[in-house]
Amino acid sequence: MAIKVISEKCVGCGVCVDKCPFDAIEMVDNKPVIKDNCTLCGACIEACPVDAIEKEEVEKKGVDISQYKGVWVFAEQREGELLNVAVELLGEGRKIADKLGVELTAVLLGNKVDNLAEELIKYGADKVIYAEDEKLEVYTTDAYTKVIAELVKERKPEIMLIGATTIGRDLGPRLSARLATGLTADCTKLEIDDEDGKLLQTRPAFGGNLMATIICPNHRPQMATVRPGVMEKAHYDENKTGEVEKVEVSLTEDDIKAVVVERVKSEKAEVAIEDASVIVAGGRGLGKPEGFELLHKLAQKLDGVVGASRAAVDAGWIDHAHQVGQTGTTVRPKLYIACGISGAIQHLAGMQDSGCIVAINKNPDAPIFKVADYGIVGDLYEVVPQLIEALDNVDD
Ligand code: FAD
Ligand code: SF4
């Protein structure tokens, strides 16, 4: 869509210039010229006394999608350690690449990260493209975007997957803008359309009340960021072989506008709930912050960690790092024990793929029981101590 001036009709009165609320029209040689900041509001069309302005449909131009092939995964590392989400993306990328019959490539950036390249092959990548440079040691939007955008332009992958980490959420949009393609953020499911091979990218929408499936029909690559913890991790195969290619990068000081001066790590103890195999989670039903001490005891008995619903986090009973759900962390532990959690859709979105779900709730109609493998109707302050006692007896 664009605003077009029909110069044969225009009498040069300049009314549109005054009426434009965004100062997006200027008179040049007695004719209005629409500037880049036009928002297509249409105020000038209404105002023109001689109907000399109209909205024009601009033909949607795409790219020749037949030139694009292969699935790429951004293998995010921090301080030389591969993030779990990179391994999860390799697992999902492998399935997609196999379905399309194309190569799976991992893209790795950093400084002295060559040791990770072989690891990525063993996690299922057919090929690893990696770039090493001092300017890539710490993530900066400018440097990472430049290197990956140039690689994509040159090699044309049809799909590019990025973890929805803080870095991925910064990198994904910048890359998609640079490559003039679409990006579906925070996907929880990816599939290939059986009919036309397009990537079906599903994510929660409208506060998690419905799931939207989004496609990118005319532009490439089809880009998605994927929430950590949602996809299954790739299997590690010691015998897997593949191609590792180092690419040279040329980054100058001018390429990087924002310089990282210092990195200060949060003093709060990190809780890696996404990696835990047992989670004991508490909700508003705990009634008080001290309730988490009881859950902590049970979690310790099971070598697990403590999780929480948003209601408990919002009440200030526990830090957000423990929150499970749509606006918290997505988890899939072997065992998830939900104590005093009703089972709102936004909470379920973050835990319903757990191996075994045990729910403890006073209300027999609580929705959490619909996803639970084992349900205990009762007061958690009676049930949890009994569980701890039973485990004590097992220990003895
Ligand atoms: P409640 O719904 O109040 O449930 C408390 C439960 O405890 C009840 O079922 C009650 O029967 C039970 N109970 C009470 N006392 C006891 C007792 N003594 N023993 C046993 N059971 C007892 N929520 C999340 O959890 N994670 C998210 O990431 C998240 N993101 C959201 C994003 C958006 C955009 C929105 C709109 C909401 C989001 N929410 C999220 C909030 C979500 O909708 C619910 O409000 C929240 O999950 C409710 O938390 P709860 O189950 O602890 O509390
Ligand atoms: Fe031309 Fe219409 Fe703008 Fe007047 S209002 S300058 S006639 S386009």
TrEMBL record:
Pfam families hit by this protein: ETF, ETF_alpha, Fer4_7
Span of domain 4Fe-4S ferredoxin-type: 1-30, 33-58
Family: Belongs to the ETF alpha-subunit/FixB family.
Cited InterPro entries: 4Fe4S_Fe-S-bd, 4Fe4S_Fe_S_CS, DHS-like_NAD/FAD-binding_dom, ETF_a/b_N, ETF_a/FixB, ETF_alpha_N, ETF_asu_C, ETF_asu_C_CS
Entries under Gene3D superfamilies matching the protein: 3.30.70.20, HUPs, TPP-binding domain
Protein's GO biological process: fatty acid beta-oxidation using acyl-CoA dehydrogenase
Organism: Caldisalinibacter kiritimatiensis
UniProt-listed SUPFAM superfamilies: 4Fe-4S ferredoxins, Adenine nucleotide alpha hydrolases-like, DHS-like NAD/FAD-binding domain
Protein name from the UniProt record: Electron transfer flavoprotein, alpha subunit
The keyword Iron is annotated on this UniProt entry: yes
PANTHER family associated with the record: ELECTRON TRANSFER FLAVOPROTEIN ALPHA, ELECTRON TRANSFER FLAVOPROTEIN SUBUNIT ALPHA, MITOCHONDRIAL
